[in-house]
Amino acid sequence: MPAKKRRRGGAQRTRRVYRNINYPRCQCDYLCPKPSIKGSAFCKEHQGCTNGSPLSGYEPPYEPDFFNKNRDLHDSHNCAAYAFGHVRPNPKAEDPFVQPGTFSGHPRFGKTRRKTCPDMLSRIFGDMPSVKPASFNERCPANTSKIAMAVDARSDYHFWRQDNNGYWSHKPGSTDVTNVDAFGRPIWNPQLASRNYNNKTSKLNYNRFCGYMCVQRKKQPRLASP
Known about the structure:
Layout: H1 65-68, H2 71-76, H3 79-84, H4 117-127, E1 132-134, E2 144-152, E3 156-162, E4 168-169, E5 196-198, E6 203-205, E7 208-216
Antiparallel strand pairs: 1-7, 2-3, 2-7, 3-4, 5-6
């Protein structure tokens, strides 16, 4: 997210899934290509889905108003700050976003620098060596919970976090915290949720899924602004 107006965000690919699906697919099973029904993450046949990512017990609650009703927090915190739990003590709306890799001295993002999963992972692990790669079906250790990452290699990265209700939420740049995907469906599995925001107002399509990670929830993460 090099330019604040375009930021929507943003560890290995865990499974091969359909990439070019342009409808809200069912998020219960990697092998189910059926569309989810309106207002649900699942197709009609999978409405009783229990195939979720296991909780560690340290997941944060989904409280969108904490960011959405405070302009200074809302405008100065991006998807990385939200997912990792980095909250400035005295935020100002004009504060620059934190960027993965800044704390550990990685080069700044530029207009010609592509966002790739390996580069983003190097930045994250450089800033926060305690972060551990994980899988969707893996329970995170005590004091940690799960986040997910994907990239639009042309221009952006994005993060999601798992909440204590088992679903996932995210904060696209300086916009509202939300718990739905690009099709307005609840997010049960970020890899299967729609991440294509390529429309009249955006050109972003996070079609490269990088994976899941377990991150600390008991201390402030090491993230910094450029």
